[in-house]
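User: Study the fold:
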Amino acid sequence: MTLIDRYLLGRYCYVFTIAYTALFGLYFVIDVFTNVGDFLDMPGGMGTVVVELLRYYSYRAVAFFGAIGGSLEVIAAMTALALMQKNGEHYPIIAAGIPTYRMVRPLLVGAVLVNGLLVLNQELVIPRIALQLQQNAGSTGDTSAEIEPAIDFLADISIAGRRLNLKRRSIEGAEFVLRETKVATSLTPIVAAEAISVERTADQPAGWLLRGTSVKVSELPLTKLGRQLIVAGTEPGTLFVRTDVTFDQLHNRDSSVDYLATSELVQRVQNPSFSRRSVHSLSLALHNRLTKPILNLVVLMVGVPFIVRKESTSLLRNVAACSIVLGVMFAGNEVCSYLAKVHLLSPEQSVWLPIVGWGTFAAWTTALVKT
């Protein structure tokens, strides 16, 4: 890597860091003033409040990076190029016969590094702190939320309840209804004081542990499949219901995919327990996640010709043109995503059409670059 490469890469990292810090600082100021009452109501004095503030917003900083990192990597590259043009630093490079796109190489390296950090953040960090990201400001105890009922379509079991306990990952006032098809010979409700979500392990299937229920397994009109899925718990007065409908499927179902690792998304897309609508939504989220790094690089390459246009000497005009083009690209991407949500496009088409279209546009606009 040459001296100019290190210089441009350093400028890219500097711009990205400053932009992220400024934007998260703005988010912090607005959000902390919105929730300041919840923090001040916490017992323990000012020391506890400060510790809780640091804890709460450290988790939010990680989620904020995942949400805005893709856009910032493009903005940082465009800003680095614009500063280079503003200071006249690109003229000696062009005069030496070095192509303009050679200067873009370190910016692409920076964008790839950011993409790598975004992938690590999504796959390793976000799933581990998903519970903390869903807790309310100033909450140190159990946090309740409204339940979104769900159905296990493989076993025909509907899951509902009074409310969710986010910290315990449980349903309070749970009600599991065995529908008269696969698991039971007649419509059978099972009411429990609490149902605790059980994660899948090497020797334990996923499901729910029902506590505080007076129903015994022997009293349930179960079919052969039902006797495999519903068994007595190890504790008295408990039942275990085996199902792949997990806790996050009952809370903020549309946004819960943001807290899942890609491997978990793949398993859910292939899982017959989920409805066709859920599988379609999960498939769209999966394809978006897999193609987002590619799309970010394509967007970066589209912006380069408009920042260093050979027929324009006005940097302000170049930045304005680049902003308009990137805005149109964003709108086009959102239109494709919406068409996929309403089933007018398949998930594969909705994510690859923008990449193919904007990639072709990037190749066509290379003639606009100042060389």
